Amino acid sequence: MSTRIVLLGATGSVGSAVVDVIVRHPEHFRVEAIVSGGSDVRALAAVAQRTGARFAAVADPARGAALKSALADAGLNIESGAGESAVNAAVDHDSDLVVAAIAGTAGLRATHRAIRPGRRIALANKETLVCAGEAFMRGAREAGVDILPLDSEHNALWQAMGAARPEDVEELVLTASGGPFLSWTAEAIAAATPEQALKHPNYSMGAKITIDSASMMNKGLEVIEAHHLFGIDRARLRVLVHPQQAVHGLVGFRDGSVVAGLAAPDMRIPAAHCLGLPGRLHTTLPRLDLAAFGRLDFIHADTARFPALALAFEALEAGGGMPTILNAANEIAVGAFLARRIGFGRIAGLVSEACEALSDRAGKAPASIPEALALDDEARGWARARLARCSAVA
Ligand code: NAD
Ligand code: MG
Which one of 95, 147, 340, 370 is separated from 119 by 20 to 30 angstroms, measured CA to CA? Predict the structure, then answer.
C-alpha cells in the first residue's frame, strides 16, 4: 500500500527535495494535499501536476483565485482553497505522513495541527521546536505520533543513535558548514551584504535559513531542535565546524564509542530516509565519495565572530520562553537585513537586546501553541519597535 502524504511548504527548498523523492518512487506514495504560502501559485500548480496531488491550498487568503487559474492553466481539475481554513483542510486530509516544511514560525500552527494518532510527521520546520518545543513534543508524545527528523543533522544523529537510550548518550555533535563567512574577519562579517550572505557553500536553501547559516544562528536553532527531538540537555550538545559537510552529526556514547552519520550534502537524502521508513528506498541520489574529499576538517566554532551561536546556547540554557524570544527576534532581524534596513552585524545585536529586555517574560516555557505564539508576537513587536526607534535616531 502506498504512503499517503500531506506536504506543507511544497514549493520551498525542502518541499522540492521531498517532491523529487516522491516522483522518483510513484509506486510508494500518494500525495493527498499540498500547501504553500501563496506568492508561488504557479510553482504549487506545478507540484500538483508532478505529484498528482488531490488538493492544493495556499495560506494567503487573497491568492485563491490565482491558485485556481494556475491549476486550470496546468490542465488540472482538483480542489483548492486559500486561507487558514484551506490550510487546515489540507492538514486534516487522511494521511500517513505529514511533511512539515513551511519556513519560519508561520509553520507552527499547521505543523502542530498535523499531530493526530496514526500519523507520522517528518519535521523540517525547526522553528516549531525552537518556539514551542515542549508543547509540541508533549502533544506528539500524548498522541503517539512519531516525529521523524528531516533536518539533515538531526536525521544523521537520529540514524547514528539507533535504539540508544538518552542516558547512554554522552554528547551529540552537530556539524556546521561555517557558511560563506567562515574565514572572514569580524569587521568584514559585520559589513556583509545580503548578496554575500545568501551564497551558501554547499546547499541551495530558502533565504531565511541561508542568512541563519551565514550568522550560524541556524546551528544555534538546530542545537535547540536537537534538545527537543532527542531529550538531550545543553551540556551534552556541541557544534563543530566541518566545511566539507560529509559528516552531519556524531553521537558519542558513554562507553567511548562514537557513531557518525554521513551522506552527500543533499536534502533529498534525509527526505528519502524519512519517506522510506520503516524500510529504505532504493535511490540514485548522489553518493558520498570520501576519497574525492581526501581529507575531512573539523574545527571549533568561533562564537566571537559568530555571536548568534552563543546567543542560542544561552537561550537554551536559560530555558523557559527564552528560545521563543530568540527565534522571534531573529526572524525580524533577518527580515530587516534582507530589506537592507540593518547591517549583518546588527542581527545578533538585536536578538541579544530582545532576549535581555524580555527576560522577565521568559520564566516558563510556553505550555501551549497559543501561549508560544503570544510570546513570539510580543518579542516580534519589541524587536520591530526597537528597529523603528534606531532608524528614527539614525
Ligand atoms: P523556503 O523559503 O525555500 O520554502 C518555504 C515554504 O513554505 C514554501 O513552500 C512557502 O510557500 C511556504 N510558506 C511560507 N509561508 C507560509 C505560510 N504562512 N503558510 C504556508 N506555507 C508557507 O524554505 P526552506 O529552505 O525549504 O525551509 C523550510 C523549513 O525547513 C525551515 O524551517 C527551515 O529551517 C527548514 N530546513 C531547511 C533546510 C534546507 O536545506 N532548505 C534544511 C533543513 C531544515
Ligand atoms: Mg540543518
Answer: 370
